[in-house]
Amino acid sequence: MSKNLYNFVSSLSGYEKIKDTCSEGINDDMINLCDSAIFREVCDNKNFKRNYLIAEKYLTYIKSKESSLIIENACKYFSYWVYKEMIMGKTYSYSVSTIHENIMNSKGVRICENYVEDITTEIFKNIEKLNNLHKSLIEILTGINDFDCDQAKKCVDLYNGIEDTCYLNSDNPFCIGLQKFREVYNTTMEPAENCPQYQFLPPFQERPEKSANTIATFTPLGSWVRHRLSGNKNLRNKLEKEFTASQNSSELQDIEYRVPYNSS
Q1: Is pLDDT above 50 for 125?
Q2: How far is CA 130 from CA 30, 60, 76, 99, in A?
Q3: What are the distances in angstroms from CA 210 to CA 130, 166, 167, 178, 206?
Q4: DSSP state at residue 85
Q5: Could you identify which of 9, 141, 184, 189 might form a hypothetical disulfide with 130, taking C-beta atoms 3.0 to 4.6 angstroms apart as the criterion?
Q6: Residue 264: which of 215, 219, 208, 210 has the closest Cα?
Q7: Helix ranges (DSSP H) in 119-166
Q8: Phi, psi of 167 (to 5 degrees)
Q9: What's the confidence (pLDDT) of residue 264?
Q10: For the whole model, what pTM was predicted?
Q11: 201 in helix, strand or coil?
Q12: How many Å apart are CA 83 and CA 78, to the nearest integer?
């Protein structure tokens, strides 16, 4: 499992836009065509076939935009979406890896070979937890006021509900993702004087015994976010652009949400 497995979550809504665009134009005639060598037991499952065609188009699209997308993150979203829509709760003998391999072999699209993850139930739940935190942060910044304290409380409550699952300096991928979110939240909320009780997410607890884990390193974020926030009283328009996907499908390369991973 990659230690950066959860990096894509902050950009999930952007990749969702790409996927939604790839779903356009898929019709019943395309779905009804079935290559039994590829689909085996699911030839009669139209929903599976439709999602498979979307997955093909998605990989083809990100291959065409290789120079303007963070491909590792785009591929991790692919793994998450394929698990969610095609594998979770199903009885098919498929995994994310086998579906990706089928597309790679049949279409010759080689873009995610090094980044595909076989998502488990636990990983999926962790992705959903982080995604809820990121969505909550966006809502804090897009309310009527510069900082929506009600949404900030919701975000703090979500964090407090899961932060005890991690220890300080953990090398667990989920904890690394949660720590990165905490850094973004604290830097973003620093000027939120109208929400003093929600300005700071506490650090993880220390392990009861000395940890042998490798200390994870994180990209400094403070100066970048402060630069974004300084001198701008109307955060709604500016930050909404940073945290949400482009509505123009022809310019989908602009949708990356880069706040957590870029310095000034």
Answers
A1: yes
A2: 35, 27, 14, 25
A3: 27, 15, 11, 21, 9
A4: I
A5: 9
A6: 219
A7: 121-141, 149-160
A8: -115, 155
A9: 35
A10: 0.76
A11: coil
A12: 8
Instruction: Return the structure tokens found at 66.
Output: 């290789």
Note the pLDDT of residue 99: 94
**Mean pLDDT computed over 91-97:** 87
Q: Work out the number of other CB atoms within 10 angstroms of the CB of residue 261.
A: 19
Q: Report how far residue 140's alpha carbon sits from residue 239's, in angstroms, rounded to the nearest whole number.
A: 10
Supply angle C-alpha 48, 19, 42, rounded to 5: 10
Contact between 206 and 167 (Cβ < 8 Å):
yes
- For residue 164, the one-letter residue type is D
**How many residues comprise the chain?**
264
Q: How far apart are CA 152 and CA 140, in angstroms?
A: 6
pLDDT at 1: 65
**Confidence at residue 210, expressed as pLDDT on a 0 to 100 scale:** 54
Distance of CA 168 to the CA centre of its chain: 23
Closest CA to 76 of 133, 114, 121: 114
Angle at 178 between CA 176 and CA 180, to 5 degrees: 70
Residue 179, judged by CB atoms within 10 A of its CB (0-12, 13-18, 19+), counts as buried
From residue 37, alpha-carbon distances to 15, 34, 40, 194, 230 in Å are 30, 9, 6, 61, 58
